[in-house]
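User: Can you model how NAP sits in this protein?
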Amino acid sequence: MKQAVKVMVTGAGGQVGVDLVDTLGALAPPGSDPGFQPDERPVARGEFVVTGLNHRDLDVTDQSAVMDAVVSIRPDVIVHLAAYTAVDRAETERDRCFSVNEGGTASMSHAARSIGAHLIAVSTDYVFDGTKGEAYVEGDPTNPLSVYGASKRAGELFCTDRDTIVRTSWVMGVRGKNVVHAIAARAKSGECVRFVDDQMGTVTTAGDLARALVTLARERVGGVWHVANSDATTWFEIATYVGQLSGRGDDFATAISTEELLPPQLAARPRRSDLSTQKFSRIWSPLPDWHDGVARLVNSIERMSQATP
Ligand SMILES: NC(=O)c1ccc[n+]([C@@H]2O[C@H](COP(=O)([O-])OP(=O)(O)OC[C@H]3O[C@@H](n4cnc5c(N)ncnc54)[C@H](OP(=O)(O)O)[C@@H]3O)[C@@H](O)[C@H]2O)c1
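Assistant: Here's the modeled complex, given as structure tokens:
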């Protein structure tokens, strides 16, 4: 029998982390498509042994704690998800943001190398400035506009060519806080919403991303990979679609510009940072279309809210 692959997941309490730990354990996370796996190999029970570490278990800013954890777990693969993700707050907490996103990734890369583990570090479309005018490919020059984006790019630079960097964008999971939860709640309560239609990007559901991370943990190919659900969209289109799924009419969502946002966003966002996932989908199946991903997500949020008294 083949030996189980040992995977250590940091940030296991975050929205991607909970879905990834479930997926590696051969459990379908809520909102994922049980039929979808980019390499068409469903996860078999016992294929992976997973150690999920949340913030309480391991503070990635503590360099020696990172080394101790890696040396004692001795994983074959580390999926590094732990991150400071409060994009606007980062503008006033620069040092804290950099110590997690740059320092934490540097420590993880160093520790992984010391035991010969393969590192998969998850990064963001916010490393780009959004001025390209078309979807970003892996080799495009970076130019982050925000502290968060700069800190994630600084973390990328500590990865070696043998490590895998997965850039993803607009992540939304069934568990954890995100915009789709907020829109679905408003749609249900009869309120209306205002969303910007001048920021374009690619949605990524946490369950579908988790499945792509499984494929990358199996293949362990180095380099940068863009992973997101297919087709670009705007926040206004997402809000309109969630409204439709919840039975709301055309008046549910109003399109506004970034300048009209109240309160204004502290961090500048790229106006167009959709990720081209062609490199990934030349080898494996592309992640499902964003409408499909968001529909599954809304369905699962609804089911979870019915199950929770
Ligand atoms: N969310 C997005 O739209 C998005 C887009 C592109 C890329 N990404 C990247 O995708 C990855 C996963 O994101 P996500 O959406 O799952 O984020 P998330 O829900 O915010 O989860 C991040 C996790 O990291 C933990 N964390 C923060 N500081 C830490 C530290 N010093 N040591 C250890 N753990 C720490 C957090 O714990 P506490 O909450 O307890 O602090 C949280 O559980 C991140 O690398 C993120 O940068 C996210």
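A couple of observations from the model: The two ends are 44 Å apart (CA to CA). The chain has one domain: 5-178+202-231+268-291.
User: Helpful, thanks.
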